[in-house]
């Protein structure tokens, strides 16, 4: 039976649950007719929602530094609970090893439960982790606490960055995503201050209040309207968008909602499943067509079919981009040496108080994040990435030259290496330390954003584990200057990679970014 046209441009079947593909021009028109309203009122709720979910990243900074606090207090302690050198080395390692599990798991779960529920759920293992630290009477309890914290760190990142990307307008997305990185450094500073004024158990007890406050804060914000639309919950999605655009009536956001709805509908219609009435040419097409009266079924794919969906170019290309970006970030930013900064500064002859060093590092990162927030709209994410990785690679090269001259000619410039490291931390957060996390919310297609973001976040920690675990071995084989030269060279390789493959996403709508990764042959067809 031939489909009959409806007034809104869609075609309807007289029987069955299948529906005809909407007209391409109609969908394109709907997506394009949602001009952004820029005002304080529309921006404020987006900022407040970002601040609420960023409390999770405050916890992240506190949990990452908690191992340093615990190890500093318990390593080879003469009385009470004590950690051997071997146990101390693995306490922080457990935090890194468990994180990829949480990242991958959250990638799948958030597509089912939503961004908000995942952000609420992750507070439970955080609270349990802090409570275990406070009540710890044995080393295994500390390891379980570290594992819970590591899992929660991995679990939170994909939904938090997906949420920011989906609730914010294009002109605010880069700034808000950059703003979240400030919370991580602030969390680190808070733990540093707690370490200075309290003992490690009291610090854990105080820290346990943060997940409770975070849970309450996230309860106040709406679910991502993009996710709600993918689940067919139109009324909730429209109410969410009205809240996020200034607590306005739903009629005010109708145009933007129609554009968002059209894109979500297109994503549903782009079924990855080939059936007699869903030919392969429709799979992941950016805009469906109605040529030949093709029809798409309301079909729920199986688990194996979902796995096949993950290896399509629209998923693999952005995934490869972000994974490589993370790898070059760890090299250019010298992240592998951060757990061993005291060792590095000793070899470079820098008189360093651990508290002062931590304050310098965190302050430099916070300042860099603010510079990123203020300049991302003008320079773009691509521009900031190229500037940042160039600066980081040059600073790492300078550190290599200094380490070489110190070893061969006994050069001693006092705190000069500390200045270089502070500049390195600053330049890292200006671009490459922040931008790849914002890409998690932008470069993946709507249907695969949760899974893609989770897998990509997991690779961040795998890279981090690799570079940190191999740093001392490389130091013994190549010397400290050799390690710096190696990572500087890899940083410049990253500059070449990003200059070729990194697109500019700043100020662009998510559907436009998604089209960039569609193969050219299908872009031409669409």
Descriptive notes:
This protein folds into 2 domains: 23-269, Growth Hormone, Chain: A, CATH 1.20.1250.20; 304-526, Growth Hormone, Chain: A. Helix content is 72%, strand content 2%. The protein is built from 21 helices and 4 strands. It has helices at residues 24-32, 40-74, 85-113, 115-121, 123-135, 139-167, 170-197, 200-207, 209-219, 225-230, 234-244, 254-269, 303-309, 313-332, 341-347, 354-409, 416-430, 435-439, 449-501, 510-516, 520-525, and strands at residues 4-5, 11-12, 19-20, 295-296. The chain is globular. It is found in: Membrane. The chain crosses the membrane at residues 47-70, 90-109, 176-197, 316-335, 355-376, 383-403, 415-439, 451-472, 478-502.
- Count of DSSP H/I helices: 21
Strand content: under 5%
* Beta strands, count: 4
CATH architectural label of the largest domain: Up-down Bundle
Helical proportion, percent range: over 70%
Distance between the termini: 26 Å
Strand ordering within the main sheet = 1-2
Shape: globular
Q: Kindly state the mean pLDDT as a whole number?
A: 78
Structural class: mainly alpha
Low-confidence stretches: 1-34, 269-299
CATH fold-level topology of the largest domain: Growth Hormone, Chain: A
Per CATH, the class of the largest domain reads Mainly Alpha
CATH superfamily of the largest domain: MFS general substrate transporter like domains
User: How many individual domains?
Assistant: 2
Element order, helices and strands? EEEHHHHHHHHHHHHEHHHHHHHHH
Instruction: Tell me the radius of gyration.
Output: 25 Å
Major beta sheet, specifics? Answer: 2 strands, antiparallel
């Amino acid at each position: 039976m031939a489909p009959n046209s409806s007034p809104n441009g869609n075609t309807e079947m007289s029987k069955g649950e299948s529906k005809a593909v909407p007209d391409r021009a109609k969908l394109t028109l709907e997506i394009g007719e949602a001009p952004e309203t820029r005002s304080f009122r529309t921006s404020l709720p987006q900022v407040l929602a970002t601040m609420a979910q960023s409390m999770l990243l405050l916890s992240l900074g506190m949990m990452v530094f908690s191992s340093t606090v615990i190890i500093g207090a318990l390593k080879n302690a003469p009385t009470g609970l004590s950690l051997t050198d071997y146990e101390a080395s693995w306490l922080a390692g457990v935090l890194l090893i468990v994180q990829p599990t949480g990242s991958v798991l959250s990638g799948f779960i958030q597509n089912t439960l939503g961004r908000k529920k995942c952000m609420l759920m992750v507070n439970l293992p955080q609270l349990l982790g802090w409570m275990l630290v406070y009540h710890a009477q044995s080393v295994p309890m500390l390891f379980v606490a570290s594992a819970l914290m590591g899992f929660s760190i991995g679990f939170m990142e994909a939904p938090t960055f997906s949420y920011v990307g989906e609730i914010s307008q294009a002109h605010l997305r880069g700034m808000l995503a950059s703003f979240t990185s400030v919370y991580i450094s602030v969390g680190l500073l808070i733990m540093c201050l707690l370490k200075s004024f309290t003992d490690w158990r009291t610090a854990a007890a105080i820290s346990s209040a943060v997940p409770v406050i975070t849970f309450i804060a996230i309860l106040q914000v709406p679910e991502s309207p993009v996710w709600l639309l993918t689940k067919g919950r139109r009324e909730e999605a429209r109410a969410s968008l009205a809240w996020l655009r200034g607590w306005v009536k739903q009629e005010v956001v109708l145009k933007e909602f129609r554009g968002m709805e059209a894109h979500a509908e297109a994503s549903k219609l782009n079924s990855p499943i080939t059936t007699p009435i869903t030919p392969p040419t429709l799979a992941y097409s950016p805009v469906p067509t109605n040529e030949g009266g093709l029809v798409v079924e309301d079909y729920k794919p199986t688990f194996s079919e979902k796995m096949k969906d993950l290896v399509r170019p629209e998923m693999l290309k952005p995934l490869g981009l972000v994974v490589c970006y993370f790898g070059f970030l760890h090299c250019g930013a010298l992240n592998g040496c951060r757990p061993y900064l005291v060792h590095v500064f000793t070899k470079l002859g820098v008189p360093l108080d651990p508290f002062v060093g931590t304050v310098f590092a965190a302050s430099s990162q916070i300042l860099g994040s603010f510079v990123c927030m203020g300049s991302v709209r003008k320079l773009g994410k691509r521009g900031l990435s190229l500037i940042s990785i160039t600066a980081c690679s040059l600073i790492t090269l300078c550190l290599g030259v200094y380490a070489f001259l110190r070893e061969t000619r006994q050069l001693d410039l006092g705190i000069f290496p500390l200045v270089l490291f502070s500049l390195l931390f600053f330049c890292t957060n200006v671009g490459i330390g922040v931008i790849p996390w914002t890409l998690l919310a932008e470069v993946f297609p709507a249907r695969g954003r949760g899974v893609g973001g989770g897998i990509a976040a997991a690779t961040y920690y795998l890279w981090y584990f690799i570079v940190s675990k191999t740093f001392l071995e490389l130091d013994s084989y190549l010397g400290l200057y050799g390690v710096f030269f190696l990572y500087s060279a890899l940083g410049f390789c990253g500059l070449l990679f990003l200059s070729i493959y990194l697109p500019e996403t700043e100020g662009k709508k998510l559907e436009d970014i998604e089209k960039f990764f569609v193969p050219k042959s299908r872009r031409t067809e669409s």
